[in-house]
Design goal:
The protein is mainly α. The protein contains 18 helices and 4 strands. Strands 1-2 form a two-stranded antiparallel sheet. The C terminus is likely disordered.
Length: about 600
């Protein structure tokens, strides 16, 4: 009898343990699936285990990309024999192509391939491009041997060698461009935003992602940049190739652990469905509450398992696409409706989301104009300052290291000090839109700082320095640029990290990678707008007796006025941004029901 009671107690204990195991093996609530396409179990997939692999992958891939891009203009002039203007133009085309390919990668990721497959394929292309560049450089381009430094330019090359070179660098552009917007979104996919703990980790991920990007570029700008500047191109390119290959291997190692979201088809066709359906019903009366609008549910249409977006007010004309007319009511229960006549609320809200995101995105372009000054005017300004410390020469471009250090410092300050303090005082932290606004304010301060430094640089300029070849045209130390670099770095933490978070959280599930691509296109357009602004300023500021604000010899110009102009334009942009941010309505997803959790527990019991 005692043995029977003992057996029953043990059996009860096992059942209780199994019940506890079932409770812990719950599915994520955001609709993610595992490698086998089944609902992702929280304890077995994603989280920081997968995210750390992606962060290291991002750092290594960034190192590889900038290992080529940072000195590409020098390679074109010293190895391929191009003049400065032609080389600069080719680098600009190549950089612009990278951002164009980011839209291609985002489209394929969201529509057909999914984020994992897109990341893997474009990283393979990236490694192939780097390998081809390294082989082409070693076998063909560095002739005669030992050429490629500042004093020993290389000889002429055949059309075949030029073709191999351009094929390799545009494969690199294709691989990196298609990979970049997708990997950020794929990393965020590893956290369930509907779970409080993982939702907080997801926000932290974007900060660490941007930090990994900066640390990778820091190594390539310093160590690899040093070797390439000395003409040791093969070492720099093979190091980049090895870094990219390691990134790919690490990425593939995490395959069983990753969480995935199924691609949802071509978003352009869904947008067209909404517009056409809304136009066809332009005479149909719209109710104010939106309760009679059509939406598919899992039980009705089990093949459609994406998260549903709740209806929002605004853009009421588009709501007509989801109104059920008498002609369509017979097909609703069968999920056989004509998409050109009847669309779901989720489809309509997708279009609304994009329309609401565009004004916010446009306001970020002018910030990117400020950001791009680090690679252009900040360097030119530093070049005409005192660049020596004792007998050591400080390359003006190396001052960007202070920007990277500032990013690392302010990410730590924000994550560990500012965010907890604000959450304690306001019961919640800063929203993404608020942080992006703070980024604009700090960017204004950076431009004012740069303008003030330029005023003092002109004050201490040498009056006997009449040419652009004059050494140290001003006695003001280049280290006076540190505050403007530090301020730009601080603004990046608030603007670009906030921008990544914002577009990822507010983009519909079928457009997540597109949201990340918007960040890259913002930087690209910032370059173009900056170039246009400089052209306009020089046209209006140049006269017979004046050489303009930004002449070849900056001692004869007024670069300070250009910086103050940027500060004024960014201030105006901030005002417009505040209006757009107040107008913006956040996207809201429908909460997952208990049926999904029961299904997940059932599959866990089956050992899948």
């Amino acid at each position: 009898m005692g043995s029977l009671n003992s057996f029953q107690d043990q059996q009860g204990y096992v059942e209780e343990e199994n019940n506890q195991k079932k409770m812990t093996e719950t599915c994520t609530m955001d609709g993610a699936v595992d490698w086998n396409g089944r609902p992702a179990i929280r304890g077995r997939t994603g989280s920081w285990v997968a995210a750390v692999l992606i962060l290291v992958n991002q750092g290594l891939a960034t190192l590889a990309f900038f290992g080529v891009g940072v000195n590409l203009v020098l390679f074109l002039t010293r190895v391929l024999g191009q003049d400065n203007a032609e080389a600069a133009n080719n680098v600009s085309k190549w950089t612009g192509t990278v951002y164009i390919f980011s839209l291609l990668g985002a489209f394929l990721s969201d529509s057909y391939w999914g984020r994992y497959k897109t990341c893997a394929i474009f990283q393979v292309i990236f490694v192939i491009g780097l390998t081809l560049l390294s082989l082409t450089t070693y076998l063909f381009l560095l002739e005669p041997k030992g050429c490629g430094d500042e004093k020993s330019p290389c000889g002429e090359h055949s059309n075949f060698e030029f073709a191999l070179f351009y094929l390799s660098i545009y494969l690199i552009a294709l691989g990196n461009g298609g990979y970049q917007p997708t990997i950020a979104t794929f990393g965020a996919d590893q956290f369930d935003e509907d779970d409080p703990e993982e939702g907080h980790s997801k926000i932290a991920f974007f900060s660490y992602f941007y930090l990994a990007l900066n640390l990778g570029s820091l190594f390539s700008n310093t160590i690899l940049g040093y070797f390439e500047d000395k003409g040791i191109w093969t070492v720099g390119f093979w190091a980049s190739t090895g870094s990219a290959a390691m990134a790919l291997i690490l990425f593939l190692c995490g395959t069983p652990r990753y969480r995935h979201f199924k691609p949802q088809g071509n978003p352009l066709s869904r947008f067209c469905h909404v517009l056409v359906a809304a136009i066809r019903k332009w005479k149909v009366k719209i109710t104010s509450d939106g309760d009679d609008l059509y939406e598919e549910h899992l039980k009705q249409c089990p093949e459609n398992q994406s998260r549903k977006i709740l209806h929002t007010r605004g853009f009421k004309f588009l709501d007509r696409a989801a109104i059920i007319t008498s002609e369509e009511s017979n097909h609703v229960d069968k999920c056989a409706q004509n998409p050109w006549r009847l669309c779901t609320v989720t489809q309509v809200e997708e279009v609304k989301c994009v329309l609401r995101l565009l004004p916010i995105w446009l306001c970020t372009i002018l910030y990117s104009v400020v950001f791009t000054q680090m690679a252009s005017l900040f360097v030119e300004q530093g070049a005409v300052m005192k660049t020596t410390l004792s007998n050591f020469h400080i390359p003006p471009a190396s001052m960007s290291s202070f920007d990277i250090l500032s990013v690392a410092l302010f990410i730590f300050i924000y994550r560990r000090v500012l965010d907890p303090l604000v959450a304690k005082l306001r019961k919640r932290g800063l929203t993404e839109l608020q942080r992006m606004g703070i980024g604009l304010v700090i960017a204004i301060m950076a431009m004012i700082s740069a303008g003030v430094v330029e005023c003092f640089r002109l004050k201490y300029a040498r009056t006997d320095c009449a040419s652009t070849d004059c050494e140290s045209p001003s006695s003001l130390s280049i280290f006076w640029q540190v505050p403007q670099y530090m301020l730009v770095g601080a603004s990046e933490v608030f603007m670009y990290v906030g921008q990544l978070e914002f577009f990822n959280s507010q983009a519909p599930d079928g457009l997540k990678s597109f949201g990340s691509a918007l960040c890259m296109t913002s930087i690209s357009l910032g370059n173009y707008v900056s170039s246009l602004l400089v052209t306009i300023v020089m046209r209006f500021s140049s006269r017979d007796d004046m050489s303009g604000w930004i002449p070849g010899n900056l001692n004869r110009g007024h670069l300070d006025r250009f910086y103050f102009l940027l500060a004024a334009l960014t201030t105006a942009d901030l005002m417009v941004y505040i209006v757009c941010a107040k107008w913006y309505k956040y996207i809201k997803f429908e909460a997952k029901g208990g049926d999904d959790q029961n299904e997940c527990i059932r599959q866990a019991e089956l050992g899948v």
